Automatic annotation (TrEMBL):
<dbReference type="InterPro" id="IPR036648">
    <property type="entry name" value="CN_Hdrase_a/SCN_Hdrase_g_sf"/>
</dbReference>
<dbReference type="GO" id="GO:0018822">
    <property type="term" value="F:nitrile hydratase activity"/>
</dbReference>
<keyword id="KW-0408">Iron</keyword>
<comment type="similarity">
    <text>Belongs to the nitrile hydratase subunit alpha family.</text>
</comment>
<dbReference type="GO" id="GO:0046914">
    <property type="term" value="F:transition metal ion binding"/>
</dbReference>
<feature type="binding site">
    <location>
        <position position="116"/>
    </location>
    <ligand>
        <name>Fe(3+)</name>
    </ligand>
</feature>
<protein>
    <recommendedName>
        <fullName>nitrile hydratase</fullName>
        <ecNumber>4.2.1.84</ecNumber>
    </recommendedName>
</protein>
<dbReference type="InterPro" id="IPR018141">
    <property type="entry name" value="Nitrile_hydratase_asu"/>
</dbReference>
<feature type="binding site">
    <location>
        <position position="113"/>
    </location>
    <ligand>
        <name>Fe(3+)</name>
    </ligand>
</feature>
<dbReference type="Pfam" id="PF02979">
    <property type="entry name" value="NHase_alpha"/>
</dbReference>
<feature type="binding site">
    <location>
        <position position="118"/>
    </location>
    <ligand>
        <name>Fe(3+)</name>
    </ligand>
</feature>
<keyword id="KW-0479">Metal-binding</keyword>
<feature type="domain" description="Nitrile hydratase alpha/Thiocyanate hydrolase gamma">
    <location>
        <begin position="21"/>
        <end position="203"/>
    </location>
</feature>
<dbReference type="InterPro" id="IPR023900">
    <property type="entry name" value="CN_Hdrtase_asu/SCN_Hdrlase_gsu"/>
</dbReference>
<keyword id="KW-0456">Lyase</keyword>
<dbReference type="InterPro" id="IPR004232">
    <property type="entry name" value="CN_Hdrtase_a/SCN_Hdrlase_g"/>
</dbReference>
<feature type="binding site">
    <location>
        <position position="117"/>
    </location>
    <ligand>
        <name>Fe(3+)</name>
    </ligand>
</feature>
Amino acid sequence: MSTTPTRPPTVRQPTVRTQEEIAARVKALEAIMIEKGIMTTEAVDRLAEIYENEVGPQLGAAVVAKAWTDPDFRERLLRDGTATCRELGIGGLQGEDMVVVENTDTVHNVIVCTLCSCYPWPVLGLPPNWYKGPQYRSRIVREPRKVLREDFGLDLPESVEVRVWDSSSEMRYWVLPLRPAGTEGMDEQALAALVTRDSMIGTGVVPAP
């Protein structure tokens, strides 16, 4: 019995778009929604203002500072990031399922979203462009030490383990950075002023005062 050879199925590779292409598509979608009356220009501007000025890294920094000075709060934060942030009135859109991972002397954590750009908005604000870009999203998983060193100037010793956490729409990670030396006498407000957005992503560390 003869058989007719069949062609192997064609596997489509995912399309990797540049940041410029993504921005153009977003702008086009925004224009269509405004034109159809689904949203207004004022609503778009107000949303951007909220996440630039009212919600952002300064709130995450306040959470970090409290965790550094309150062991019970820190324990709750690591156990249930979403509920514990709500104790400080922090939460909302894109912050429904937050998981906090702690840096130590021997472990350094860094976050990414390999599928898109899932990110804990209530504590970190809007994601930076590089976080959404295909270069960071693909390389940080494969070669985290190299990316941290070459792209962010963070050269970690070999004795420190680097762990990469992949966020999703169901679970958004962020980092509780290591408290720097020389901050023992500082209050929460002063400590919060030291905390950077990148230190809560894991692409940086909190500098000593």
